[in-house]
């Protein structure tokens, strides 16, 4: 079995399914919820670009550098986003959780928190990772707060890390959770989800 093998990860609020071509229409509908492609500080494919993005992620999966998922709500059964394990380093047992977006109607519902708990649990307890990384745009304050809220620690900032299609330079903030922190992070995320369910 390869380091990143397709797997379905199921929780109470959400199921992370291996990305497939037939998810196209559901993903287009999810990205239209909030017209997420208009957010300049993140990269969400426009409807006409979704097929190419699915193909790109599946190509990276075949190359063993990415394991892409489709995010599906449990309550409605509808697709509400995408996420991945990416930049996999099997020799050093490291992955990044990224290339994530969530439909506007699914934000602040606990879906993102549970998705991250499912991914981190798989990374640390099945893949036996020693570290899991998160990266986001310096200007994406919502994403930075959400990552810190997971219990990840900021490692640093990669200045002028990437160039956007319009030529703008992006500073990237890097966070991580390491193996010795996992139990504490898991407890915190589980408590957050339980508190939300008890309301």
Automatic annotation (TrEMBL):
UniProt signal peptide: none
Domain N-acetyltransferase: 14-153
Molecular functions per Gene Ontology: acyltransferase activity, transferring groups other than amino-acyl groups
Pfam families attached to this UniProt entry: Acetyltransf_3 (PF13302)
Entry-linked InterPro entries: Acyl_CoA_acyltransferase, GNAT_dom
Protein's name in the database: N-acetyltransferase
Organism: Cryobacterium shii
